[in-house]
Design goal:
By secondary structure, the chain is an alpha+beta fold. The chain has a single domain, classed as Nuclear Transport Factor 2, Chain: A. The chain is built from 6 helices and 7 strands; from the N terminus they run H-H-H-H-E-E-E-E-H-E-E-E-H. Strands 1, 2, 3, 4, 5, 6 and 7 form a 7-stranded antiparallel β-sheet that branches. It is globular and about 80 Å long. The two termini are about 20 Å apart.
């Protein structure tokens, strides 16, 4: 039964195309922990060595998968390995800015359905007359490509090199200093006139006194953030689609490696 279900799923992917959220994160994806999350050579030599070995084995596998896909597909797919960091940097700013304003229309074509629906749902849960004020103060380090994988969707034996289906995912690390405020529009009467102004509130809509939307105040409350954004590209009938944001990924920790080992056993 499991084999029949797997074959049926592959048949649907070949006949109906690949839904943008059907694959998830490509199996075998490895993201090296960053900063304090990375085991030290001095405190945990075995753990660090284990991660380094896993990283290099994964990189070799990634290269082999990319070369194979490039070789068996006509016309040759464009790899564009150097482009994802700049693409993600641009989409990162646009996505959060439009999400904070509560208007995603301008960015919809660049988001996969799962991510888009998640952002819409979060916007719908906001209190009336409220929005977010998101400010990117700076990038602590340059956006870095940490994973680039390609996966072929197996087709029938009669499939030609011009009928290939697959997916490519590039994961980029964004290390930034940013701040986020909940802002509510309040109408008050001043000198006999109705005036609408913005006040800073908490997540429940209660006003926070002595808080302002001034950039200096925001900078004092800014936090460093490390995000791993997944950029995805679908190939249907050997034709590549545009790069789109799929969502977020997480670092590969030692506990995850242990979990994978137990599943294999």
């Amino acid at each position: 039964m499991a084999r029949v279900q797997a074959e049926e799923k592959l048949r649907m992917l070949r006949d109906e195309g690949i839904p943008e959220d059907a694959v998830g994160i490509i199996p075998g994806t490895f993201i090296m922990p960053f900063g304090k999350n990375r085991p030290s050579w001095f405190d945990n030599y075995k753990g660090r060595m284990r991660l380094e070995r896993k990283r290099w084995r994964t990189r070799l596998t990634e290269v082999a998968m990319i070369v194979m896909r490039w070789w068996i597909t006509r016309p040759r797919p464009k790899l564009e390995i150097t482009k994802p960091p700049s693409i993600v940097k641009d989409l990162h700013q646009k996505m959060y800015s439009h999400f904070a304003a509560g208007n995603l229309e301008a960015i919809e074509p660049r988001l996969c359905p799962g991510l888009l629906n998640s952002l819409r749902r979060r916007i719908s849960l906001r209190s009336p007359n409220t929005h977010l004020k998101w400010t990117l103060h700076k990038y602590v380090s340059k956006p870095k490509l940490v994973s680039y994988r390609a996966m072929q969707i197996p087709g029938p034996k009669s499939e030609t090199s011009r009928e290939r289906n697959g997916v490519t995912q590039a994961i980029v690390r964004i290390h930034s200093l940013q701040s986020l405020q909940h802002v509510k529009r309040v109408t008050t009467r001043e000198r006999g006139l109705l005036v609408t102004k913005e006040v800073v509130v908490d997540s429940k809509g209660k006003e926070i006194h002595n808080a302002t939307t001034d950039e200096r105040f925001q900078l004092r409350n800014a936090k460093e953030s490390v995000e791993y954004l997944v950029l995805q590209r679908i190939m249907k009938q050997s034709t590549q689609g545009p790069w789109k944001l799929w969502g977020n990924a997480e670092e590969t920790t030692l506990s995850k490696l242990d979990s994978e080992q137990r599943k294999k056993q």
